[in-house]
Amino acid sequence: MKLRIAIWAGAGALVVVFWTLYISATVPTAGGIMWTLAYLTCPIALARDYALSFYFVLLANTATYALVGAVVEAMRGHFQQTGVAHY
Question: Which pLDDT band, with edges at 50, 70 and 90, does 64 fall under?
């Protein structure tokens, strides 16, 4: 379970790196589908009006994904133990 949570955290870090590279390469306009995707995949992006360092955003998103991963893996383990049918 620890490995899976670490994978979730790694995915969160990769999301931050992707958005940092994308925003650096293209100056996205306000609004649009890309900012919606950024808000969904990187919740700290909601604070884009504030000056946040790359490392703070990386840490915050990694922690968010690790927390989500821990919840998902705990639920997954619970459902596997109880024998709930998977469809």
Answer: very high
Give the residue-averaged pLDDT of 4-20.
91
Does the predicted model carry a pTM greater than 0.85?
no
Task: Give, in order, the Cα–Cα distances in Å from 34 to each of 69, 74, 86.
Answer: 24, 31, 34
Identify which of 51, 53, 21, 49 has the alpha carbon closest to the alpha carbon of residue 34. Answer: 21
What is the C-alpha separation between 13 and 26, in angstroms, rounded?
A: 20
Q: What is the Cα–Cα distance from 7 to 25, expressed in whole angstroms?
A: 27
Hey, which bits of the chain come out as E strands? none
- Kindly give, in sequence order, each residue whose CB lies less than 8 Å from that of residue 72, ignoring residues fewer than 6 positions away: 8
